């Protein structure tokens, strides 16, 4: 009986397996016959789904015999629905009719490079971002793009992170969201920690290296990041993403959308929470964010309202690790006070309109408002009362001039304005003209509070020991045109005028009065040529960018000695090509700076280090990147950049404590490397799919030696490093989900001990032979082998 039961069970399973059928087909554009890549194919009730490949093909497996309801949707096309009898003989061919609705690409097109623009760029789509998006910040997700070096203060990619492109730091990299400026108006930086899980609401990002095309906000002084947020989805959906990883890292994200309602309206939303203890001791992160977007989609216009916000609390790990502890205690954190935290929230509001006027014109206008507020708290041991503008405290016969203090330093700022553009394309398509610009105002309060003192004297809780305000108006107008002179041969011109009014007044944190006003007008021209033929685009361009000093350059320097603005002259030349399975990009660049601002060791009248202009410096390099599809299962990709980054001459100042009085000694240097500018940066990616729906990726990253300052001193350097990661992704279409995807990312599989960021300072002290030079290096160590595991369920 047991054997008979087993035989019957096996037979039943065999018949059940035979009853499960598959359906194959392809999805094409009804007018052109071109394949539609990424179309969503779904069988209702049967619960099977697929996405079309690069040939527009799809395959649905494990379908029950009988009638199933097939639904196929694609952005900008009418949804296809039909009942299909299973089994179905042959291939199904579906041709989708385009829907005459205005798409959202024009929202960002004015500030982006196109296929004919003669500059160096790379566009990363949502699918590519999602492959690495397991809760780490955007700089980590972009780590494998050309010439990028990313870093993390806490060592694990969550919390305070940053990136450099061609050795250029975040303060010189312009960032926009839907064409709206993101950089802080005063520091010029971007604080990604204020935007946790923002990548989950990004449709694509374009990275332009070099000056690039005219954009809004801060000058592109090395690169620009142009983000477009999620675009409309025609079908209703819900998605849950959960993840866990090393260092008690947890990530939970919920997304939902209505799809297109009444063929005109759509609402999308996201809610995220990410927590991590960090690799560095006590460097925890507690991050929350949301994103809501509602839109009206007409035949000739789109109106969108985006609201997104991020709130963060992180334990500070800004101090870094002393060189003496690199081998013995890599996770040590200088801070020990339990509430040594950074606390900040930033809310963004965007109202965007884009529309068509006739057949030749498109317009775009966006109103925006950003509200940011928060503080970082610090415990200060034995601080002088004078540092806080307070008198000494007398108790009996004892005069106390210092005490332990807990302070908070606050930012409370508003940023608002508008950006817009109008685009004309001639009937024959030869002329593409854009006129755009914007006007924005920043109004920021800076103040500090004493919330506790061991010896308080005549002070009140939350007494402000400094308070100042800054107002910055930033206006720009630009005109861009591309004209096809001959078939495939295009001429490009881009002229921008940018005006800045910056005023500041009050008492700074070092107790100095900082009252001043500066005004700038910059002219930033760009010209270039491109030639397209046989799948290749050859290009060459010359561009100029001018950049005003940052807030600290104004407040730390005496007002009568404000640094000069920086200027960059940029030449780019290269080729972009796609031929069958092989795509590649190769380019040469030359970036010549005038009056670049660098730290030289020079101090101001209260001992703070200031930046000074160096007359000349330059970057010159070659960048190569490409991908080759060896077979349907195997793809090889990678990029490499070789560069020389030099300062012909500058003077370093070193503090001297060896004598009776403090002084500084100067040293002249010639032909030295620009700080944090490795001569070689390379990445390699191998993607292998042994079976359907399973993808295995090997990711490698090499970064050459970097110097911590501009002296090219081997004792003030970051060692070269080579890291390797493995990513495994498996995606299925269960009966009750549109898709279920599991992603495992194992970072640094060979446990490389490396540091991509740090700082240094030197000084003289008395020694046996008169005086001794002491150099102190501090590093930000990154985690050894660690993992992130994520599960995504889409309904």
UniProtKB/TrEMBL annotation:
Bilayer topology annotation: Multi-pass membrane protein
UniProt KW Phosphoprotein keyword: no
Superkingdom as given in the UniProt entry: Bacteria
UniProt keyword annotations, A-Z: Cell outer membrane, Ion transport, Iron, Iron transport, Membrane, Receptor, Signal, TonB box, Transmembrane, Transmembrane beta strand, Transport
TonB-dependent receptor-like beta-barrel domain span: 328-749
Keyword match Cell inner membrane: no
Listed Pfam families: CarbopepD_reg_2 (PF13715), Plug (PF07715), TonB_dep_Rec_b-barrel (PF00593)
Signal peptide: 1-19
Subcellular localization(s) per the UniProt record: Cell outer membrane
Domain TonB-dependent receptor plug: 115-222
Protein family (similarity comment): Belongs to the TonB-dependent receptor family.
Protein name as catalogued: TonB-dependent receptor
Biological classification of the source: Bacteria, Pseudomonadati, Bacteroidota, Cytophagia, Cytophagales
């Amino acid at each position: 009986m047991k054997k008979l039961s087993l035989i019957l069970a096996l037979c039943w399973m065999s018949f059940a397996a035979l009853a499960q059928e598959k359906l194959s087909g392809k999805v094409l554009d009804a007018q052109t016959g071109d394949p539609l890549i990424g179309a969503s194919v779904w069988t209702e009730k049967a619960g099977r789904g697929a996405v079309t490949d690069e040939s527009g093909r799809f395959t649905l497996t494990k379908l029950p015999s009988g009638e199933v309801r097939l639904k196929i949707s694609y952005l900008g096309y009418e949804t296809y629905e039909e009942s299909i009898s299973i089994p179905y003989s042959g291939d199904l061919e579906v041709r989708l009719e385009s829907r005459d609705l205005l798409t959202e690409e024009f929202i960002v097109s004015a500030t982006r490079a196109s296929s004919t623009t003669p500059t160096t760029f790379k566009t990363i789509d949502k699918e590519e971002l999602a492959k690495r998006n397991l809760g780490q910040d955007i700089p980590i997700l972009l780590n494998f793009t050309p010439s990028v070096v990313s870093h993390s203060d806490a060592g694990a990619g969550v919390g305070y992170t940053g990136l450099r492109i061609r050795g250029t730091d975040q303060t010189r990299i312009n960032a926009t969201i839907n064409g709206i400026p993101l950089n802080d108006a005063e520091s010029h930086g971007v604080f990604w920690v204020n935007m946790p899980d923002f990548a989950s609401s990004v449709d694509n990002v374009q990275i332009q290296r070099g000056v690039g095309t005219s954009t809004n906000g801060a000058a592109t002084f090395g690169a620009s990041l142009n983000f477009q947020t999620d675009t409309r989805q025609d079908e209703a959906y819900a998605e849950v993403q959960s993840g866990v990883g090393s260092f008690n890292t947890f990530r939970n994200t919920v997304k939902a959308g209505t799809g297109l309602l009444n063929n005109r309206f759509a609402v999308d939303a996201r809610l995220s929470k990410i927590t991590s203890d960090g690799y560095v001791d006590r460097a925890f992160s507690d991050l929350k964010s949301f994103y809501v977007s509602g839109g009206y989609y007409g035949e000739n216009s789109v109106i969108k309202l985006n609201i997104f916000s991020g709130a963060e609390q992180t334990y500070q790990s800004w101090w870094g690790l002393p060189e003496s502890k690199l081998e013995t205690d890599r996770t040590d954190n200088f801070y020990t006070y339990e509430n040594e935290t950074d606390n900040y929230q930033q809310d963004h509001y965007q109202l965007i309109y884009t529309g068509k006027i006739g057949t030749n014109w498109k317009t775009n206008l966006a109103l925006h408002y950003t509200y940011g507020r928060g503080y970082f708290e610090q415990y200060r041991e034995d601080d002088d009362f004078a540092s806080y503008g307070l008198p000494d405290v007398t108790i009996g016969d004892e005069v106390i001039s210092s005490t332990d203090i807990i302070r908070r330093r606050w930012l409370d700022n508003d940023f608002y304005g508008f950006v817009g553009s109008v685009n004309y394309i001639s009937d024959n398509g030869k002329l593409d003209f854009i006129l755009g610009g914007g006007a924005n105002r920043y109004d920021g309060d800076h103040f500090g509070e004493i919330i506790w003192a061991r010896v308080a004297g005549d002070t009140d809780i939350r007494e402000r020991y400094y308070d100042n305000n800054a107002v910055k108006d930033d206006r720009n107008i630009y005109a861009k045109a591309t004209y096809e002179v001959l078939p495939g041969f295009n001429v490009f011109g881009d002229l921008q005028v940018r005006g800045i009014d910056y005023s500041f007044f009050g008492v700074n944190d070092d107790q100095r009065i900082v009252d001043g006003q500066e005004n700038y007008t910059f002219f930033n021209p760009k010209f270039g040529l491109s030639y397209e033929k046989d799948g290749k685009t050859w290009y060459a361009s010359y561009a100029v960018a001018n950049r005003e000093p940052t807030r600290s350059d104004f407040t730390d320097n005496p007002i009568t000695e404000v640094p000069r603005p920086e200027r960059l002259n940029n030449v780019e030349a290269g080729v972009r090509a796609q031929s069958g399975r092989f795509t590649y990009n190769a380019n040469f660049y030359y970036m010549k700076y005038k009056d670049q601002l660098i730290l030289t060791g020079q101090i101001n009248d209260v001992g703070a280090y200031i930046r000074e202009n160096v007359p000349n410096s330059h970057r010159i390099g070659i960048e190569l990147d490409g991908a080759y599809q060896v077979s349907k299962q195997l793809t090889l990709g990678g990029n490499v950049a070789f560069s020389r980054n030099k300062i012909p001459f500058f003077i370093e100042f070193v503090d001297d404590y060896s004598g009776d009085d403090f002084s500084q000694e100067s040293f002249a240097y010639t032909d030295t490397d620009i700080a944090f500018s490795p001569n070689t940066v390379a990445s390699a990616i191998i993607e292998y799919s042994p079976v359907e729906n399973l993808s295995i990726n090997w990711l490698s990253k090499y970064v050459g030696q970097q110097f911590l300052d501009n002296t090219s001193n081997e004792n003030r350097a970051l060692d070269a490093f080579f890291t390797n990661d493995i990513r495994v992704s498996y995606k299925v279409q269960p009966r009750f989900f549109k898709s279920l995807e599991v992603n495992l990312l194992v970072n640094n599989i060979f446990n490389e001990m490396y540091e991509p960021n740090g700082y240094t300072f030197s000084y003289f002290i008395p020694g046996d032979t008169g005086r001794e030079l002491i150099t102190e290096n501090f590093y930000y160590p990154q985690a050894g082998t660690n993992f992130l595991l994520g599960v995504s369920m889409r309904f």
